[in-house]
Amino acid sequence: MAKLIGPKKVKTAVFISGTGSNLKNLIKFSKIKSSPISIDLIFSNTSGAKGLKFSNQFKIKKYISSFTNSKIAEAKILHLLKKENIKFICLAGFMKILSKNFIKNFNGKVINIHPSLLPKYKGLNTHTKAIQNKDKVAGCTVHFVTAKLDSGKIILQKKVKIYKKDTPTSLAKKVLRQEHKLYPAAIKKIFN
Length: 192
Description:
By secondary structure, this protein is of the alpha/beta class. It has 2 domains: 9-107, 3-Layer(aba) Sandwich (Rossmann fold), CATH 3.40.50.170; 113-192, Formyl transferase, N-terminal domain (Rossmann fold). The chain has helices at residues 21-31, 53-57, 70-83, 100-105, 126-132, 168-191, and strands at 10-16, 37-44, 61-64, 88-91, 110-114, 137-144, 154-161. Helix 1 links the parallel strand 1 (10-16) and strand 2 (37-44). Helix 5 (126-132) crosses helix 6.
């Protein structure tokens, strides 16, 4: 009896630099039937990234390359992505800026999750900035990646209330919980 094969999932690479909680969440999401993506490669710019453990846990190929020379690193990564037939990239706590040339090769198929309500607070220390500025809300954004830091077209955002008792750490935890819901929703939005 022939096995029924559902619609083919888009081969995806996730780029990380740290703990990989969004990576783990995206892997779980990729396993559900309605997910439009499959995670076929994990890339990190640092061998110390805790998130690399998910490569063994979920039997996903991993590749590590430091960005000491970003031109060489990007050329190697592009070669690998083409070889693996990767069609989509999710940045999940990836702490390097990709070049215009790299992004152009993926023609609008690179997205990122950022822990603020962009265009507010691009870059680092978003939760500290939100609290220092006495903002009432913080949140997270999934956006398309351009060569300009955290500036691409916004796909989805989610707000989180900031309370007086919140610290950058408590706010980061609240925002991260929302990131885990927002990233899969944004991916579904792109592919539906």
